[in-house]
What does this fold into?
Amino acid sequence: MSSDQELRWLSPCTPPPLTSDKVLAWHKPGNSPFLFMQGGDATPAGYGELNRMRRDPDHHWLGHVVIRPGLRGRGLGNRLVGSLVQHAFGQLSAKRISLIVFPDNRPAIECYTAQGFALVGDEFHRFVDGGPKEHMLRFEIRASGSTEYGTAGENRAASGKSRPI
It folds into this structure.
C-alpha cells in the first residue's frame, strides 16, 4: 500500500503496514481468494475475493480488491474486477454480487461503476470494537437480464487473468 488511507479503504481492520502474511490471513474457510496476474510477470499484479453469502448461494460478495501500487493507473483494477464479475456469473452461477466501499475512495467507486455496479444504498459499519460507525456505500450488480439495477453485460476486462489461490 502506498498510504495508511489506502489500507483503511482496503481493509479497515488491518493495521499498517500491509504485508503478504496479512493478505493471506484475510482468507477464511469457504471464501475464494484470487490472484490477478498480468503478462509474464511472476509477481501478482493484484488480489481480490469472491465470497458466497451464507444465506443466499446465488449472492456473492466482492472484497479486498487491490492492485500493486506501482501498477495503478493502468486500468488493471477494471480488468481485475471485470474478471471476477465474469467468473462469479459464469463459473459460480451467481445471480448478484455486492460490495461496500468508503465514500471517499473515488478510484474504487469509478472502477466498480465502470464494471456495471450500481449504488443501492448506504450502510454503517463498526470495524473496531468501540470504534465509530463508518459510513459505507453499497454497490451491486446482477446477472444479465436483470433490470432492477447494475446489470452485467459482456466482460469489460480486456486482458489479464484472475486465478484462484
About this structure: Strands lie at 31-37, 46-53, 56-67, 96-101, 118-125, 134-142, 161-164. The mean pLDDT is 85.
